[in-house]
Amino acid sequence: MAKYLTQRIIYMIITLFIIASLTFFLMKFLPGTPFQNEEKLTEEQRIILDEKYGLDDPLPVQYANYMINIAKGDLGVSFQYDNQPVSSLLLKRIGPSLTLGFQAMFIGTIIGIMLGVLAALFQNTWIDYGSTFLAVLGKSIPSFVFAALLQYYIGVKLEWLPVASWNGFSYSIMPTIALAIFPIATAARFMRTELIEVFSSDYITLAKAKGNSRTEVAIKHAIRNALIPLITVLGPMAVSLMTGSMVIEQIFSIPGIGEQFVKSIQTNDFPIIMGTTIFFAFLLVVIILIVDILYGIIDPRIRLAGGDKHE
Amino acid sequence: MSNSTENLPKELFEPVSTDHMNNEVIAKPQLSFAKDAWLRVRKNKGAIISAVILLFIFIMAIIGPYLSQYDPYAQDVTKANLPPKIPVIENLGIFDGTQDINGEKSDIYKNKNVQEYYWFGTDSLGRDLFSRVWLGTRVSLYIALLAALIDMIIGVAYGLVSGFKGGRVDNVMQRILEIISGIPNLIVVILMLLILKPGIMSITIAMVITGWIGMARVVRGQVLKLKDQEYILASKTLGARNIRLLIKHLLPNLSGVIIINTMFTIPSAIFFEAFLSFIGIGLQAPEASLGTLIEDGYQTFQFLPHLMIIPCIVICIILISFNLIGDGIRDAFDPKMRD
Amino acid sequence: MGKKILEVNDLHISFHTFAGEVQAIRGVDFDLYEGETLAIVGESGSGKSVTTKSIMKLLPKHNSEIKSGKIIFQDKDIVQATEKQMQKIRGKDISMIFQDPMTSLNPTMTIGKQIMEPLIKHGNFKKSEARKQTLKLLDLVGIPKPKIRIKQYPHQFSGGMRQRVVIAIALACAPKILIADEPTTALDVTIQGQILELMKDLQQQIETSIIFITHDLGVVANVADRVAVMYGGKIVEVGTVDEIFYNPQHPYTWGLISSMPSLDGMDDELYVIPGSPPDLLKPPKGDAFAPRNRYAMQIDLEKEPPMFKVSDTHYAATWLLHPNAPKVEPPQNIQDRMQKFSKGAY
Ligand SMILES: Nc1ncnc2c1ncn2[C@@H]1O[C@H](COP(=O)(O)OP(=O)(O)OP(=O)(O)O)[C@@H](O)[C@H]1O
Ligand SMILES: [Mg+2]
User: Fold this and answer.
1) Is 80 exceeded by the pLDDT of residue B228?
2) Which of A125, A145, B96, C268 is the most buried (most CB within 10 A)?
3) C280 Cβ closer than 6 Å to some ligand 1 atom
């Protein structure tokens, strides 16, 4: 476990290093970035860039400075928001994004697990078909399409919920639902397949052979074993939530990181784009690492691996 | 127990040769893997219906823009923002060119004095949505198929080499894969698009950069599994050259995983293109894709919902169909799912 | 022979698959007596597992169907029993051991909990008593340091140890019938011997009847009192161990015995029965073994053979036993065995 963990952390650092270098060199060498089109910048911006990145320094020095700054958590300053530091802009906006992300993840996995369990327990009945169909819809329909339709029908037409903005719980309902459809679909499908596989395993037959009822078998033996591998999809789920949050925040005018990111793309605010990119990458890599560790903690086979094996 | 059989005629107890029967039994063709899978897919109604719908959409993507008499790029401000109006169906009270304005139905075509029928209406520049939707579908499908094809070529090649060479080569190649796959693809794609000039080619390239990894993984996994199987070992000892071995034995066996994987990369590429266009770094006007149409429609959806809803429906149908077919094929090939 | 404890009558079981109806069991009859060990042998796919699973009603619900027949246990027909009634029988009166000890234990539950489950369920044990009983059981099946082992997970046990745990679970409530579906196939030879010894030993102590499924005729000779030979979803010959080994009547049994490696290791080449098992989607008319039978007759292709009586305990389903059938010479090695039998020297 310790060796595995060290290896994972090393990979994590390499990955982050590559992403950071990538952003630097892309911005540095490719046309269309502020480093190349200095004439497009205001005088003030040019001075800031100069100070920050030392544009007249030799390349290795610039690169080293850039990487050191990132390691220190300094992601540069924004153009569009009065030259505020990117890191504090990110911090300021992380609240709504996290709220939304956690709500969607939480609700999504719980509903998804329930759907998946129902589908597996009632395999090849209309409950199964219904749940599977919902899962296919959830996986297929892009969250922004779903969000836009929700906003139109529930917000504009029916006026049940506020159309946009961020002023309390009711404002978070539609975006959460829109974001949750993917976790629901992923969890439901995964849970169904996993449970069906577990149900066909010998130890479930043995559990039945002990005289357990179907419900007891499901609750005591099957679901726990099917739930453990579900942890592995939390990583991909987090990726999709991040992707989704960008458009969902934009659609519902939520002051989160995603919305700021999209706006920066549209206004060419490169420091924010780069900073957010690195921040997202960092977040993802950490989430995936946590998921891995979690898996090890929950699954006794991994938890005790390499431990005491007797015969 | 045997009493009732006492008076059976003696001829019945003549010995018969069973040689031919044995041969028959052995020669009886086992359902081949692919055929078996096909039988299963065929039973999956969702997959079959999806295939038919997709076929229809493919055909429309090719001929759709020419079915309507209007050029998808032609602008005519006098005919802007028209709601859908379709002959015959208009009599049913839908697609009749009317629109709710402050709770009242009014015939926009009459108001604007337009004689023609625009089946899906027009956008704010007076362009025909019907031909634009199919043009957009064509572009979206084109990008997705191209990306999936390139993913497939790179992924299969990488996976084959990695799996087949084994040893240190495999080890190094796997480490590289691990690192690349640690980079969130969204971020790579966005960075690439900020730098490349937006267009069909750059979107495709941006998606391919991380897209091939999944394919490389499954192909390698499959190669490792097949490599140990007897017939490969057998032809190796017989001295078949590596390349011939690869083509003759591996590719047919790999086709299953390759098809399944591709069936899932296509819809994810369609999604990505739409996503990028929606946040404004995908295709640029006047180019149309389903993503740009949805984006355009979204700007005015409170007043002209059809501009957004129609392309939304088309993209959803495409994505759902691909996913259902993919699921169908995957379940059919998956031995765990058989009963 | 003791009292009859289980009676299976004309059992027919089908699976509904995408390719059609698989008639896996096509009229199986057998009895099980108190305290005896009945071995069921036969090639892969002959229906051994399906037959025994049906006794516990553990066949997959969604695609299997008991078409007809009776399974009488304690004067009740299991075929007609409700799920509730079955739950009372399973693990208490009838229990089961599976082939692969690596997969038959729940990987995320401690060994102790898994053994305690049937105790608490059927034995009305309180938790602390169940724990004590579990420790006893672990000791009984020969697992050292039960106090430590009880808290461990299956992956911390070797294959042989796991199979001991599975046996402990199966015997926890001292069942009347123990079904062992190839309990030693997945184990290596020395461990195999130990497990077989353990089972024989425990059978004496608990006085249970055992249905023992195996491919391995060597094992049969070692553990069984009687043997049932299955082919193509039917029992084609049944008799005592001696009758089956030294006076076999069915050509399929001849083939099976000939394909058994001889104990003295004299034969260097193993006999293989030619041809392949019948397609249970379209079972042939007549005797399912006919296409592979060197001694096939016209009637084998037309009519299914009934069970012909050889002795009070010995029956075989082959037309060769019909009075009108020509006398055939069994393969040489079988004749040798029969000779030993008639001399009474086995
Ligand atoms: N769940 C199932 N669905 C469909 N067919 C099945 C199922 N289970 C068993 N069968 C069929 O029933 C027949 C008998 O199978 P069974 O498992 O009883 O064989 P067996 O004698 O135990 O073989 P083995 O020695 O390999 O364990 C086989 O032809 C098999 O294909
Ligand atoms: Mg079996």
Assistant:
1) no
2) A145
3) yes
- The string of DSSP codes covering C281-294 is TSPPSS-TTGGG-T
Host domain of residue B147: 42-82+118-338
For chain B, the domain total comes to: 1
Contact partners of B by the rule of 3+ C-beta pairs under 8 A?
A: A, C
Q: What is the ipTM of this complex?
A: 0.85
Confidence of residue B34 (pLDDT cuts 50, 70, 90): low
pLDDT band at C345 (very low <50, low <70, confident <90, very high): very low
The CATH number of whichever domain residue B304 belongs to comes to 1.10.3720.10
CA-derived radius of gyration, chain C: 21
Cβ–Cβ < 8 Å for C209, C34: yes
CA distance A301 to A295: 10
- pLDDT value, residue B320: 93
The verdict on B24 touching C (C-beta cutoff 8 Å) is yes
pLDDT digits (tens, 9 = 90+) for C125-159: 888 999 999 999 998 888 899 999 999 999 899 88
- Ligand 1: centre distance to CA A166 (Å): 60
The confidence band for B236, taking pLDDT boundaries of 50, 70 and 90, is: low
Omega cis (within 30) before C101: no
Q: Determine, yes or no, domain membership for B20.
A: no
> DSSP readout, B165-191?
H-HHHHHHHHHHHHHHHHS-HHHHHHH
B147-158 pLDDT, tens digit each: 999 999 999 999
Q: Which residue has the higher pLDDT, C235 or B28?
A: C235
> Which candidate from C58, C122, C157 shows the least CB-CB separation from A205?
C58
Nearest to A59 by CA among A34, A28, A27: A28
Residues B274, B293: Cα–Cα separation, whole Å: 9
Q: DSSP strand E in chain C: where?
A: 4-17, 20-33, 37-41, 64-73, 76-77, 94-97, 177-181, 209-213, 226-231, 234-240, 308-311, 314-316
Q: What angle do CA C105, C110, C113 make, to 5 degrees?
A: 90
Residue B15 lies in a domain: no
Domains in chain C: boundaries: 35-58+82-230, 249-342
Are the C-beta atoms of residues B74 and B127 closer than 8 Å to each other?
A: yes
C-alpha–C-alpha distance, residues B118 and B230, integer Å:
63
CA distance A150 to chain B (A): 11
Name the residue among A92, A97, A80 with its Cα closest to residue A271.
A80
Within A200-269, residue ranges assigned H as helices are 202-209, 214-216, 223-230, 234-251, 257-267
Q: Enumerate residues 6+ apart whose C-beta is below 8 A from C38.
A: C30, C32, C209, C210, C211, C212, C224, C225, C226, C227, C228
How confident is the model over B92-139, as pLDDT tens digits?
Answer: 667 666 776 666 677 776 777 777 777 777 777 777 888 888 999 999
Write out the H or E segment, with its range, that includes residue B107: strand B104-107
Distant-in-sequence, close-in-space partners of B58: CB < 8 Å, separation ≥ 6: B141
Q: Which has the closest alpha carbon to B122: B68, B60, B57? A: B68
Please indicate whether, in this complex, the C-beta atoms of B2 and C309 are within 8 angstroms of each other: yes
For residue A110, give both structure tokens: 């719980």
C35-58+82-230 is classed CATH 3.40.50.300: yes
Q: Which atom of ligand 1 is nearest to the CA of C46?
A: 21
Polymer length in residues for chain B: 339
Look at chain A and count its residues: 311
Backbone angles phi, psi at C179, to 5 degrees: -105, 120
pTM of the entire structure? 0.80
Taken in order of first residue, the domains within chain A and their CATH numbers are 94-264 (1.10.3720.10)
Which atom number of ligand 1 is nearest to the Cα of residue C99?
27
Of C122, C123, C150, the residue nearest C136 (C-alpha): C150
* Residue numbers of chain A with a pLDDT score lower than 50: 304-311
Helix B251-278 to helix A143-150 angle, to the nearest 10 degrees?
40
How do beta strands C314-316 and C234-240 pair? antiparallel
